[in-house]
Amino acid sequence: MKRTTIKRQVASLVLFLCVWALGCETVHYAVLEEMESGSFVANVAKDLWLDPKGLSARRARVVSEGSRQHFQLNSNTGNLFITEKLDREELCAQTDPCILYFEIILENPLQSYRAEVRVYDVNDHSPEFSDNELLLKMPESTPPGSRFPLASAQDLDVGNNSLQSYAISSTDHFRVYTRHRSDGRKYAELVLETPLDREEQAEVSFMLTATDGGSPALSGAAEVRITVLDINDNVPEFSQTLYRAQVLENAEQDYVVLTVSATDLDEGINGAISYSFSQKSKKNVSAFSINPVTGEIRLLGPLDFEETETFEIDVQATDGGGLSAHSEVLVEVVDVNDNAPEVKVTSLVSLIPEDSAPETVVALFNVRDRDSGDNGRTVCSIEDDLPFSAKPTSKNSYSLVTENAFDREKVSEYNITITARDLGTPTLSTEERIIVKISDINDNSPEFGQTSYTMYVRENNGPAVLIGKVNAFDSDSEQNAKVTYSLWPAEVGGLPLLSYISINSENGNVYALQSMDYEQIREFQVTVRAADGGSPPLSSEVIVRVVIIDENDNAPFILYPLQNSSAPANDLVPRSAKAGYLVAKVVAVDGDSGQNSWLSYHLMKATDTGLFTIASQNGEIRTTRLMTDRDTMKQKLIVVVRDSGELPLSSSATLNIALVDGFSDLYMRFTDAAVEEEDNGTLTMYLIISLCLVSFVFLISIIVFITIKLYRRRHYGERFMSASGNFYGNSNFQNNLIDVKGNGTLSHSYRYEVCLTTGSGNSEFKFLRPIIPSLPPQHVWNNPDFQKNSLRNELLSMSR
User: Fold this and answer.
1) Residue-level pLDDT at 249
2) What is the pLDDT of residue 601?
3) Domain 237-334, CATH 2.40.400.10 — does that match?
4) Which of 228, 409, 508, 752 could form a disulfide with 470 if both were Cys (CB 3.0 to 4.6 A apart)?
């Protein structure tokens, strides 16, 4: 029956629940205690004018002030439900109204609404007496109208459901009255209506019933037993009817609160007074003790102003004859600042981008102080040198917002200390530390270590040679700081830039892709671009200057006398020429530069070494003395032109000089015939010797060639795999290298045609002749093998 009645009350009250003060700073709701878990409270979305569909997207949730979550929010519908059965007495004890506070937190953006739910009491507790039997002693001389306070019954309910009245069963001697204390509690006062007579009735007993105001009313009862004592003429009297005292809540144990005093005019045992508490409530008994002899009231333990502000103690003085008097002691607890503020972070965004706008909400937090007055008033602050500020949103609620723009490259993380300080004396404070990290955005382009780079490479270099490195640094982080290098398209010497050099996109190493020829390209510039991995990517450029260092790879080229004609150059010198006569001038050039192009001229061989000399600087050939009749008519000079390189290269030229008496044509023809007959014998001997030497060298070459060929075939596969592995196995080398054949003055491979003629009378030997590609004259003349072959061909033609 009781449970059915409670359910009716719950259903009746839920029908009339409404939202108080909608649209104000705090949203108010009301529920009855003892409602089952999952009971509906209200639709938060409707009350806050929010779109229910957006609650889930904004991760709506409920955060209670205490450690327990009494309510749950359905983020899909906006309905607020009870998570557990609410017991008002457990939550708030005797505090009325009983209010539970919580916040409704929304994200994206962060937003909070403060709400409170008032828990209404239902009559689920009946009044109870601490003792089932109340014992009193009264002398038979007690005059009618005497009043005796009785032990109060305890009802955990509040309001109309709490204890309302007392009643006693039928008796001729007493009546009971319901009295009110200053704190609103009710107690029973027993009044003697007719005199007692111990000889007629030594003990009077009846039932004392305490009834609450619920519907239906609940009650509790205790038996009152009064022993009638023999006459004791004087009753003890207290010095005051009401004692007042104040005690600090941090007072130590055994602290003397005050001393009560009573006197009795009787003598002997009837005048001996003992003190005790007449109302033995749990709260008073656990906090205070009274000395039965002296009346000192002392503390049993520390007090807590936040739990109880005032204690009302009923003190009883009883003499030896059983007579007693009563007085009331009112103890006021004085609050001290013994509770530091409490900071509770309800929501935190720990990672924010560095381009966050000012007033961006980073965190939500609450500050609570259990003290009262100035001791409970708080102020909140953070360090001044941080780009954040704490702004109040509602009572004791704050939001942490940004003030200025961020630069992650300077500060990537902030350690924020929230300090909550009360206004008590001494001041107490609490610090709560939170860490906010700044995420990177791509706001810095790569920066090169130098404004420009100069790299050097020697000509005739092999492919894939590392010639230098560029380096760029990006102060951003992660992908935004990943630098990729590339070359801007351009042309050098009519060929694309990418055919000359390549750059490693990851480490900036610059490689030469092909052999460089100083005589074609002496230097060139390229633009290297460094781009980061951000979106969109940022980039910067730098100029790289590549300088080709000259190598001595060009032999001197002789312009005069010409060496590409079938007949050697001839010059005439009159026999009447004086010493120092300019016979001819050898003219040569060198395709190299610098020291490699400095030429010197030397007379390697001459028919008469003492007749001619050559200037080493300019190549002028002059006579050293006067001609004599003993000097041979035909003089042959071999001149060597040598450069000044570290490994010098040289070229030679042959000059035939005829000593004549005059310059007539007839004389010239005669002279030529005579010279030819004179030299035929000597030349034939030289040719025979040369043929023998060449034949011997040829046979040796054939044997060596066959041996090398067999050896290469056997080990070709092993060497090829080894070379391939060494070349391509290097992970630092660019795989996109190309092979560009040079057409400069680099070394060339030659094939030689070797044969013997048959059917000739003298078994003439045909010389080795190089089969070479068509090259410009300069390249042909610069080839030493070609020059030697030309010389041999010239000798052969002269012998024929």
Assistant:
1) 85
2) 92
3) no
4) 508
3-state secondary structure of 221: strand
Residue with tokens 């990006």: 474
Confidence band, pLDDT 50/70/90 cuts, at residue 10: very low
Which residue's entry shows tokens 């749990």? 282
Q: Which pLDDT score, from 0 to 100, does residue 52 have? A: 78
The class (CATH top level) of 133-229 is mainly beta
CA–CA gap between residue 625 and residue 628 (Å, rounded): 9
pLDDT tens digit sequence for 308-329? 889 999 999 998 888 889 999 9
128-129 vs 79-82, strand pairing mode: unpaired
In this structure, the dihedral spanned by the alpha carbons of residues 188, 194, 199 and 204, taken in order and rounded to 10 degrees, is: -30
Contact 347, 331 (CB under 8 A): no
Residues 6 or more apart whose Cβ sits within 8 Å of residue 293? 274, 275
Homologous superfamily of 27-120: Cadherins (2.60.40.60)
CATH number for domain 342-439, candidates 3.20.20.70, 3.40.50.2300, 2.60.40.60, 2.60.120.200: 2.60.40.60
- How do residues 31-83 score in pLDDT, each as one tens digit? 888 888 888 888 888 888 887 777 877 888 888 877 788 888 887 888 888 88
Tokens coding 38: 């999952």
Residue 461's pLDDT is what?
84
Q: Which residues pair with 28 in a beta bridge?
A: 20, 116
CA angle, residues 451, 457, 459, in degrees to nearest 5: 145
Q: What is the number of other CB atoms lying within 10 angstroms of the CB of residue 135?
A: 11
| pTM over 0.70, yes/no | no
The answer to whether 400 and 392 are in contact (CB under 8 A) is: no
pLDDT tens across 215-272, in order?
A: 888 888 998 998 888 777 788 999 999 999 999 888 888 999 999 999 988 777 888 8
d(Cα 598, Cα 560) in Å, to the nearest integer?
17
**Dihedral sign for Cα atoms in the order 673, 674, 677, 682:** negative
How far, in Å, are 106, 497, 706, 708, 718 from residue 713 at the CA level?
81, 39, 11, 9, 10
Task: Kindly state which CATH superfamily the domain 557-660 is placed in.
Answer: Cadherins (2.60.40.60)
Question: Where do the CATH 2.60.40.60 domains begin and end in the chain?
Answer: 27-120, 133-229, 237-334, 342-439, 447-549, 557-660
Distance between CA atoms of residues 44 and 31, nearest Å: 15
Q: Which two tokens stand for residue 22?
A: 């909608």
